[in-house]
């Protein structure tokens, strides 16, 4: 590389390029922009529908019946404010979690933000560095780049000088430098960064279920509106009352707050985790957190702290300068990892400097690194079971040390000229053992209680490491991990995914796992129906993180891991994971409660519309009645329930489970309310205001009981919430101005008592049905299954 290129750009050249607009000015896209947030929360299908109905009521009815229009304001305002809060949190966390880039300027290497890179900058690369702009390689020291994010090919690509590197790749071995040729929106990074860090609502089982509900309701709205208008015009005799009655029925069918509450719960979850220094890069990751039942963790950086200490150097013979070679090997590494830093800190430099004439960087595929020192020979440092022959006593000694939880590496000398083609070097056959480097790993103090938490929550933890399985097993035993007494060497795992999955389910600790094997192990676990989360901090974890249901990266890990993970632990705290899982479960459990409320309202609205159409009577409610009842039994309670603590474990089958509650609850509410209303209309002394008050009391009592059922298990605040809603309705009935505002009357005591009795009876029947019908259905299904199995067996025996 020319001397001028080695110096990089000067400060004046950098300023000149910034002024010319040739900087890497890719906007951070950790969330939607403010205009996008406003548009997304205001210009919605349901705001348009409710807005149209609002206009009809304002034209044909009274303004008090247009109170449901406040839903538009509430939906839009709450959703916008909540997402703006989440945006601020995410933008702040995105800056913290963004990987700095090393550039050489004025002859010195310095770290700059990605946005500060300019055209022609000389960017320095080391293992784990993410490539954020495009350019040509000008120097290479065994530089190998993984471009799987671009090409889908997992094999690392060698990058000698003159080769091109593109943003989206990351360094897996070696080092080097390249000149930035495409920056900003001209580079691949402009698209990849957006996709990697966008605040999004991607596909999820929860959102798919809610969208299915909304789709079916939308199909029902048009025929329901036509039916209601026809019956209301026939019974009321004028268009104004017909329009108001039809609007009252249709508005109630729309579960307008369900999507809002889901988005709020997701967004609040993101903000809460953000306060714990946990960056959630996609909103549906919150749902994934709740469903996880297998957690795969890498030992280094997760169970142990990144740093290590050199505990001992066991010299294997007096014929080789083992300590000097080990110190020189560490000193020759331009970008030392944790192992090399421990050696550098633990050994003095050789009295006479050893000049490296060639190096081979460490790679997870080779599991060793090396350097050639002119007349002092070629030396390699790596795993003992890779460098040493199976019958070598030093290998047995390394295993004994590793069984105590120590990390043991072997130092050996190989024949001169061995590094011409390092991938074909048979080190075990040619190496002359020199020493064992014994390293003590630092256990994370929070690792043991975190593992106990997952065990108590039914989440299986699998330790997947590239280290010796005996050493990994010792670490896992020290942390009381279930199954740690039987570590498995991943090199013995079967290649068949089904057979591999069986081994994975039966064991907890795996050593000598390669990058492709980590990926295969995650896929095998998922093939068994598990929801798999993968944690990691190194480039060898990227492939597995990409294939897991939920990728969790450590904040101090490589930029590549942070780019592909859905969750980043910015403070590297393994103890944050229990809070992450608990937050996911809180959100998912609460959304199911809220969905039960909204779908119950939709079902009883449909029942009322059908019964009104069949009997051809006036719709029992004005829009203001339903606004009052929905606000007290759904709107206000849903907000509190969506954000409440909830430690329930996530279960599959969201849609069937919600329907099993909402359908019988809606039928009970709609049927009992209509029965009370119809009996009231049979008395010639009453008017519509009396009859609709009777119906309102019946519906409120039933829906308040539905709220109480959904709020289980009961505690003080939940019972207080139900009581507060009942008190609020009683206040409306008892205060004359409020009663007149909501068009309620309390003179028909007999009708009200009959309707109340019907509602109480329906509440009892509903409670019994929800308690015993599912059990009876399950027993009948089990019996039917046994009968089918018996029939099959009898059929096989029939000649």
Automatic annotation (TrEMBL):
Membrane topology per record: Multi-pass membrane protein
Keyword Translocase tagged: yes
Highest taxon above the source species: Bacteria
Pfam family of the protein (one): Hydrolase
Protein's recorded name: HAD-IC family P-type ATPase
Species name: Actinomadura nitritigenes
Entry's transmembrane regions: 42-60, 66-84, 213-230, 242-271, 594-614, 626-646, 658-680, 692-711, 716-733, 753-773
InterPro entries noted in UniProt: ATPase_P-typ_cyto_dom_N, ATPase_P-typ_P_site, ATPase_P-typ_TM_dom_sf, ATPase_P-typ_transduc_dom_A_sf, ATPase_P-type_domA, HAD-like_sf, HAD_sf, P_typ_ATPase
